[in-house]
Amino acid sequence: MESSRLGVDVGRGARVAVVSPPFLSHAQPLSVLAGALARAGAEVHFVSAPSFAPLARVAGVGFVPLTVTRNANTGVARSTRQGAREAERLREFLASTRDGAVATLLLQSRHRGEDMLADPGGVLAGMRALHARLAPDWYVVDQLSYPVTLALHCLGLPFVTFCPGHPTYVPHSPDALFGVPYAWPRAVRPADEELRELRRAARADDVAFTERFAEVARTHTPAAPSPGRAFALTSRHAVVFNYPEFRWLPEHPPGTTRFLYGGHCLPAREPDPGPEWDTVVRRLRTARERLVLIALGTFLSARDDVLATLVRGILAQVPDAAVVVAAGDRAAALSSLSGPSVHIAEAVPQRWLLRRVDAMVHHGGNNSFTECVASGTPALVLPFSSDQFAIAHDAERAGLATCMDPCRLNPRTAGEAVRRLLHEPPDSLPRWARAVRRRGPDWTARHLLRTMAAIPADA
């Protein structure tokens, strides 16, 4: 193993590099964890694309520029400068979301090789150079940054895996397949033949990725042990889930790996977005008694048809509610809906607003889900892709949210669902909000440093 300072001296004073892909939804929680590790006594560097340097400054940690994938999303996916093929894949993805859950997941399966393992040799070289420069005791790596995980495995460097999405992003058994939801919400139940097709595609991905991982390891570090099943390659020391520990989640295989459910990765204090947002909230509260936030994430904000359906439905069915809409680059296209009780913006201070709204409509992304739970905000979940179906299932089963199929949405049903949320908020939400808030990034950082300190020097 190349790191030489493992053992009881690692903990307070440990050098830790937190490596993030260039996606805002991943970089934000990882930067918050980086700040928590620094507060707990570690010397921390945040490693990501140059545009994310401000996150390191806010977290109070060092910054090292390193881009580990050609894809990028700095806040509004379609406005982010990226290559022609990456932009084309984004257009294909958005089009697929109009055809339903399985069509979208199959499209994501076809894109997976380009999205997730585009230049493993280049990333390995970059990580080798990074280690020569910083010599961290530990790395914390985003679980979906497969080329970074593979590089750390090949170089024999100690790392912790941070899972940014649903815990089943890490396959829990041989039958579990990345890209196939472990469970579905009631509103989205694909036909059996569709599920069989999805499982065939996911199994082919599993085999192809595993073979490619092995080929990269043989080519670049012949002495390294086999990486094994690609999607299951994680830290053998600790895996952090940015997620609540629901009792029905699949069990982890027995072993020495520690699995930490951090609950959320929100900063202790949310930055003030400025007086203009105070003015917006006061204006809307003056117009209507209740306030609803609609935000479908940095990719799916492009679905302006769904955003428009939601706004029209809430205005018609919930006459005492005003609406704030995060519309990305579709804000101008939706400007005709703006008015005394509707505020449409390209981007919104979501975490700040969650303390000031009565309900939220979101896409089932992990950040939006955990932010709603931590703030005690009732939610309507509209899952489109990825792990959003599994998250929607858990939110529904825990009694934390209502779920609907975005492909079957109409103004009446959308408005009625929001009205029920406002007038009959979930009973279990306060209990889960307390449970999630008891953990968080500082709890996770303390437990991680203890885990690091407990690893024998010859591990």
Task: Please explain how this structure is put together.
With 459 residues, the protein is of the alpha/beta class. It folds into two domains: 15-265 and 440-454, Rossmann fold (3-Layer(aba) Sandwich), CATH 3.40.50.2000; 275-437, Rossmann fold (3-Layer(aba) Sandwich). 43% of the residues lie in helices and 13% in strands. The chain contains 16 helices and 13 strands. The strands form two sheets. Strands 3-2-1-4-5-6-7 form a seven-stranded parallel beta sheet, sandwiched between helices. Helix 12 links the parallel strand 11 and strand 12. The chain starts with 14 loop residues before the first strand and ends in a 5-residue tail after the last helix. Residues 1-10 and 72-80 have low confidence and may be disordered.
Helix run count: 16
**Do you know the CATH topology of the largest domain?**
Rossmann fold
- Low-pLDDT stretches are 1-10, 72-80
Rg to the nearest angstrom?
A: 22 Å
Q: How many β strands by DSSP?
A: 13
- Quickly give the structural class: alpha/beta
Shape: globular
N-to-C CA distance: 8 Å
H/E topology pattern: EHEHEHHHEHEHEEHEHHEEHEHEHEHHH
Helix content: 40-55%
Bin the strand percentage.
Answer: 5-15%
Tell me about the largest β-sheet: 7 strands, parallel
Given this structure, which CATH class of the largest domain is correct? Alpha Beta
Overall pLDDT metric: 91
* CATH evolutionary superfamily of the largest domain: Glycogen Phosphorylase B
Number of domains: 2
Strand order of the main beta sheet, please? Answer: 3-2-1-4-5-6-7
CATH architecture of the largest domain: 3-Layer(aba) Sandwich
